[in-house]
Amino acid sequence: MKSLLTRGLWLALLILPVPGHAENRVEKLLDNLTLTALSLLGTPYVYGGANPREGLDCSGLVQFVYRQVGEDLPHNALAMSRLGRAVAEDHLHPGDLVFFDTLGRPYSHVGIYLGDGRFIHAASAGVEHVMISRLANPYWQQHFDGARRLLGLHLPVPR
Question: Is 58 known to be catalytic?
């Protein structure tokens, strides 16, 4: 009986992922996601744009960035708002999607949370390029619709 239990424990150790390894995978995904997003700063805003060479809109930016880490998302902020799981504003992690009502309808704008109260998004009003904004900005606070976590659902989220 003892040898069967010992063999079972060894087998479990070989099969089950090591928690640190899973956290490293998420951290690498988040690093790649963040670096990709930041590399697009200044990319022109183009309505319906999904290619950085031609320009991006908000959902095109998110779709492009997430595609680089192996996630296939729709090119629509409202559709993205139905993915993953809801996250409270005070529990945001880098890589979470943040949503806003900017056109008089919920979930009409989306960005990627970067940490430290900042998010990256493709802005159309006045600025017309990919930029970083602060969630604490009164405009964004007034129009905030919520956030969703897509990465880390099947892996631990880094602390």
Answer: yes
Residue 109 annotated as catalytic: yes
154 in active site = no
Looking at 109, 129, 143, 154, which residue is catalytic? 109
Number of domains making up the chain: 1
Predicted confidence at residue 158, as pLDDT, reads 45
CA atoms within 13 A on the CB side of 127: 15
CATH of the domain at 58: 3.90.1720.10
> Do the Cβ atoms of 25 and 155 come closer than 8 Å?
yes
Range of the domain at 37: 19-149
For residue 9, being part of any structural domain is answered with: no
Going by pLDDT thresholds of 50, 70 and 90, the confidence category of residue 147 is very high
So what's the pLDDT on residue 153?
Answer: 52
Q: Average pLDDT for residues 4-18, to the nearest whole number?
A: 38
Q: Per the residue annotation, which of 91, 93, 121, 154 is the catalytic one?
A: 121
